[in-house]
Design a protein that fits this description.
156 residues, mainly alpha, two-stranded antiparallel sheet
Length: 156
């Protein structure tokens, strides 16, 4: 299995909340937002800052794909840490980040800003995001696994 296929598999098998048999698209929308910001040249380094731009991209993509009012983007930003490719660069140390919440809770954006310098993905994944072909394949995997199923269930 090549590196693109490995990340495609990771994307298709993320740990997500399931409600009424439907996989929640929040993490997928966050990743699509990061991919969009890389594609348009806003993100040029492997640093996903806790700032308004990622929130605006998330809200835009939520409305585009889910067609409803978006939830907060900070929940998937935080919970992506459970995925093997998403990481946080601490301001001081990792223990400080781990201590922000109890297990299963989401840190508030102000708590995240106090302990997290930025999020980043594996270097290999960031490199894939920089190339149109692999970016399209990975975006397609997210859309097929988390968004098309939402559309299909909404129509039924």
């Amino acid at each position: 299995m090549n590196i693109v296929e490995q990340y495609k598999y990771c994307f298709e098998h993320m740990s997500v909340k399931i409600t009424n048999g439907q996989r929640k698209p929040n993490k997928a929308i966050m990743l699509l937002s990061v991919i969009d910001l890389i594609r348009c040249g806003y993100i040029t380094e492997n640093r996903i800052l806790i700032e308004d731009t990622i929130q605006e991209a998330f809200e835009y993509n939520w409305r585009k794909y889910i067609k409803s009012s978006p939830p907060t983007c900070w929940t998937p930003f935080w919970h992506l840490k459970k995925e093997p490719f998403w990481h946080f660069k601490p301001i001081n140390n990792l223990d400080e980040i781990d201590g922000l919440t109890k297990p299963g809770e989401t840190a508030s954006v102000s708590k995240m800003r106090s302990a997290i310098k930025y999020a980043y993905v594996d270097d290999d994944l960031f490199s894939l995001f920089l190339h149109q072909e692999s970016r399209a394949l990975l975006s397609g995997a997210l859309i097929n696994a988390y968004i098309k199923t939402q559309s299909q269930q909404a129509r039924n």
